[in-house]
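Exercise 3.2. Students should predict the tertiary structure of the chain below and write it as structure tokens, then compare their answer with the key that follows.

Predict this chain's 3D structure.
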Amino acid sequence: MKTKTNHIFIIILIALADQITKYLILIHIPLHTQKTIIKGFFNITHIRNDGAVWGLLSHTGNGLIPKIITILSLVSFIIIIYFFFKTPKKCKLELISLSFIMGGAIGNIMDRIFRGYVIDFLDFYIKRWHWANFNIADSFISIGVVLLIISIWRNKCYQS
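Answer key:
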């Protein structure tokens, strides 16, 4: 197994950036409070997401759902770790995409384990249409998934 130090550094940086921004939100913006950054487009809005992606299954009142989501997140993370270490160093796009996904996953899993919910605060909107609130970890997971789809679509890394 070849070391992938640069990618591990990226993973750590993403997880740290995510946790630092969430900490800043916790200490500076009260829960359910919003601060307008770009009027009509972007707010910082402190919310708690005890559900899945985009707040699905959030606030159901069923205490089992956050636990199930945490377990599924951990299982998914273990699978991603497997693919990360199995991916050859020459597969740069695949490794960066997996690094982004892992860094984001660590940030959100830490929230789920230590808080029981994920802190979301990025709130983009146009008029009355709001995108679901998200955080730095979600951003990197999303970018990583898009890059992974591109890498699978172009199918260059694993061809002989």
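Discussion points: The two ends are 20 Å apart (CA to CA). Residues 5-154 form one domain.
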